[in-house]
Structures are given as C-alpha cells and as structure tokens.
Amino acid sequence: MTFNAATPSPLRRVLRDHRIIWWMLLVSLVLAWLASLPARAAFGEVLDHSLASQRLVKGFDLGTFAELMSSPEIPQGVLMAASTAQFFVFFVFLLFMAGGVNAAYASEEPLTTGEFFHACGGYFWRMVRLTLTSLLPFALVGGALLFLTKRADALAESPNERTQDYVLWAGLAGLGLLMLWVRAWFDLAQARAVAWGERGMFKTALRTFRLVTLRLYLGYVALGLLRLALTAAGIWLWLRVGPESTGKNFLVMEGLVLAAIATRLWQRATAVRALEAVARP
User: Per DSSP, which regions of 142-281 are E strands?
Assistant: First the structure.
C-alpha cells in the first residue's frame, strides 16, 4: 500500500467511500432489531393485557416505560444479556471493518467490494492485537476517571457548593481530551499497520506514539466537538418532535447514529492522511 500526497482530503475520502457508512448503519439496525426481540416478547406478555400499552404503542411515555421496566414480570437479566451480546457483535464487526476502512482511505481509487472485504479479513488479527495493546493506555485513563470521581466525592462537604461540580466537569473535560489523544494514537497505528504492512503490533504502537502531531490531535478534537454539537442538535430535535410521533423519533435517532458513524470515519480518514506526511522508515 502506498500513499500519495495528491490523494483526496479526509472528508472527500469519507464521501467517496460512503457505502462504508451505509454498511455500518445497516448492520447496526439489524443488530438493534435482534436485540429488541427479547424485549418485545417480554413487554408483550405484560402490555397485551394492559390499557397502559396505548401510551407506548402510540408514542413513548417515559413514566409508563419506567414503571414497566420496574415490573417483576420483566426479565431484566435476559434483556441485559441480549443487549450486551449485540453490542459485542457490533464491536467485533467494527474491528473487522477497520482494516478495510484504512485500506479504502489509503487507496487513490475506490476499492471494489471484494478488495474491501479482502482487506478486512487480511488485517483483522492485526487490528485485534492493536486493540488489545490499546487496553493499557485506555485503562490508565479509566483509572484516572475513578480517581477523579472519588476526589469529587471528597469535595462534597466543601463550603463552596459548586466546587465539586467544577472539579468534576473540568476533570471530565481533561480526560475526554486525553482519551481523544489515545484514540488518535491507535488510529494512526492501525493506518500504519495497513499502509506499511507491519506485523509486530506492540512495536508498531510504540513507534507510532511520537507520530501523533498537534495538527492531527486538533483535528480529532474538532471532530469530537462536531459530534457533540450534532448530538445536542439531535436531542433538541427529538424533544421538539415529542413522544407521540414514533416514526419521526426513529428517524431522529438514526440520524444521530449516522452522524456518529460518519464523524468516526472522518477521524480515521484524518489519521490515514496524517500518515502520508511521514516518511516510511
């Protein structure tokens, strides 16, 4: 795999290979539907004999839903297991797609479907090993988050009632920025593994550490803020639509999923583009 400085910008690559977005959206829809089947069966046994069902059939009443979820007749363990299983399957699917996504964005011409999925399979285990390697820095960030929450709890009795909130929100913002840096680091490592055909993923991760530039990081921050803005706009729209229109609410929620997928792929394309400026050792 070779890179050319004249290849398209990150956004143009995402738009050029837009079918990747639709594949991910379709798989997420199918898995969400599968995860909903146990819930539909469990809810049906309760709501089929209740007049309260109209509050959920013709819309979404939060109070009714909360009361339904607290009912002893609803198997919470089964529903949680179904959701967890589908989440794990989707995570593995995204991991499988990672190699093909990096190969597609590195290519000057769109890959055929066969070439794309060949890259997905060919680089799958390298993506798995890189993901396992990333657990350590992500775990360190998670440990910092636990320390932050305990520290915030210790400030609960501070004379200034807002001190706890200030410390918590400032700490969360800082950890969020640190998480984005780690994400950029390992996205760049994935792009390097695909572009340069490297096989030692631990060494690849270590060697990529110094390649994360301020420009790449700021690009990730900007896209992270864009995702937050789109999420906020989607939630605002959802509140404006109201619970009565199930169809419109479904479209708004799927729009949020679509925005999350597109901005995440944009980040990946940004990492691929950043690697093009690096001379291969």
Answer: none
CA angle 238, 240, 241 (to 5 degrees): 65
The model's pLDDT over 121-144, given as tens digits with 9 standing for 90+, comes to 999 999 999 999 999 999 999 898
Q: How would you class 262 by CB atoms within 10 Å of its CB: exposed for 0-12, middle for 13-18, buried for 19 or more?
A: buried
Going by C-alpha positions, the residue among 279, 278, 276 that lies closest to residue 5 is 276
- Provide the token pair at 124: 């799958």
Query: Residues with Cβ < 8 Å from 237, sequence gap 6 or more?
Result: 252
pLDDT on residue 121: 95
DSSP run (H or E) holding 184? helix 163-195
CA-based Rg of the chain, rounded to a whole angstrom? Answer: 22
**What does the DSSP assignment read for 104-142?**
HHH-SSPPPHHHHHHHHHHTHHHHHHHHHHHHHHHHHHH
CA distance 230 to 212: 26
Q: Which two tokens stand for residue 89?
A: 């399957």
Q: How far apart are CA 192 and CA 82, in angstroms?
A: 35
Whole-Å CA distances, 116 to 61, 100, 109, 119, 260: 43, 5, 12, 5, 22
- Predicted pLDDT at 71: 65
Q: Phi first, then psi: what are they for 4, rounded to 5°?
A: -130, 130
Task: Provide the pLDDT for residue 113.
Answer: 93
Q: Do 110 and 104 contact (CB within 8 A), yes or no?
A: yes
